[in-house]
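Hey, weird one. I pasted the SESD1 protein sequence into the form twice and got a warning about non-standard characters only the second time. First submission, copied straight from the form history:
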Amino acid sequence: GGKDRRSGLILTIPLCLEQTSMDELSVTLDYLLSIPSEKCKARGFTVIVDGRKSQWNVVKTVVLMLQNVVPAEVSLVCVVKPDEFWDKKVTHFCFWKEKDRLGFEVILVSANKLTRYIEPCQLTEDFGGTLTYDHMDWLNKRLVFEKFTKESTSLLDELALINNGSDKGTQQEKERSIDLNFLPSVDPETVLQTGHELLSELQQRRFNGSDGGVSWSPMDDELLAQPQVMKLLDSLREQYTRYQEVCRQRSKRTQLEEIQQKVMQVVNWLEGPGSEQLRTQWGIGDSIRASQALQQKHEEIESQHSEWFAVYVELNQQIAALLNAGDEEDLVELKALQQQLSDVCYRQASQLEFRQNLLQAALEFHSVAQDLSQQLDGLLGMLCVDVAPADGASIQQTLKLLEDKLKSVDLGLQGLREKGQSLLDQISNQASWAYGKDVTIENKENVDHIQGVMEDMQLRKQRCEDMVDVRRLKMLQMVQLFKCEEDAAQAVEWLSELLDALLKTHIRLGDDAQETKVLLEKHRKFVDVAQSTYDYGRQLLQATVVLCQSLRCTSRSSGDTLPRLNRVWKQFTITSEERVYRLETAVAFHSSAEKILQECPEQPEAFNEMEQFDEIEAVGKSLLDRLTVPVVYPDGSEQYFGSPSDMASAAEHIREKLKLVSLKKQQLRQPEATTPES
């Protein structure tokens, strides 16, 4: 990379201790001298023979060899000698002696004095200079350059042959030529990338001196032939562009042929085996399982079609890409292929979708029919079981359940009609894509099946409705029966409560006649309430007898309730009569006693007969005795009015009034006793 003071290139020959092969050295020198341009060679070479690690005989042989290899180009040979060896006089004399014969000057010089002849900036560090040089780096770049030159030259020849062959002859000759030489021996992209990288490296090394501080050397420009790299790259790009166009045209023709072939494959299959598969599938099944089996079969058919539809999508994309390329010569053919393919695929897809929708509608119809059939079976099962409810609430609950089930059946039948009509509508449209086949028979079977299912469900539903009406009437009568029995039992309870209230709370007899009369009137009203309760219970029990006869069953409670009702009413009647007797006796007692007590003592003639006093006392005592006697019922049981303390309180008022009557009687007797004495 260095230059001498005459701008000639410097050639350095390092010698080593090992034996140097002159043949190899000669070949190497020939190679190195072939690199520079003729302009560089005309300026001559300065050769540095580094003999510091070699023998004198080897150095001498090398110098003499230069005469045969580069006699005209060498202007100066600098032999770098070792510091301690060789005889200066001998060596100097020998080189001086051979000067005229060699044709160039030979200088024997030490390494530190080499700068007398060559500038330090043009010498490497091995000779005390400052020139930056990496031999391995130079060697690697040189190898890359030579590889690029060789590959690019060969590639250019191949591309030119391919491109020129495609420009001549008929269309068939073009195709044969392209087929024969279609693939180059090396990848053009790789070669171009290598050339660009090499050119980028050369350009970078040329201009990095200003930034990196390294002096620029013309070696890269002159020895690595940067212009040659650029020229090869330009030629390669031109030929490669033409080659790409040739490949594009051939690829386009090949792609068009492949598209045509694939389009016909898709069309032939869809119009052949695919259509035949659909022609054989017309039934809708007579149950859920049958419809599901047909759906599974249809899914298998769809799966086969999906593979061809995927090919259609791919072909459609390829055709669209070719149409966007805008080649007029292929537009008409491509559009015709695209239209043909789309028509066939869309028609087949529509048929598949129609069949799938038909099978789905059939499956839904059979599913609704099965659900409705199960509902009717459940309703019929309830109606066939005899009703044996425990109470009216359970009857109401059962009746509500029946009504709900019947309503659910109505909704199910309505849904079945809707599904059936929808399915019939689809079947009526089925002949529009029958490919000329008469599908009347197949459709009639399907229509008859659908209508038969709907009619059968309607009849079953009507039978269940009739049975529900009968069951509803029976259950309503049972509700009335239970209600009557419950109300009759309630009447017995009410009457028992009235009896209990009569015995425990209706105790007072009144302090005077007026109060006793009021109590007697209240008692009569109380008895009227009890009478109404008894009559109400009797009417309810009579109603239960009628309902039992209508339902053809025996009353569960009327046989027990009626004796209870009569027994309680008998006890109430006896107790009431006793109460009436006591109140009436009390009224008579108070009335007589009050009348006597209110008479004036100045009228003794009104009491001439003492029998009245005796009668009043007898009534009072009889009433007192009656208060201590219990009420005796027909079954021998006894009941007292109130507690003993209550009875004692009621008797106390009678006794007090008896005392007043006795006192009045004595007062009246005293005047009668004093009169005879006077």
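That's the output from the first submission. The warning seems to come from a hidden character in my clipboard, not from the data itself. The longest strand covers residues 74-80.
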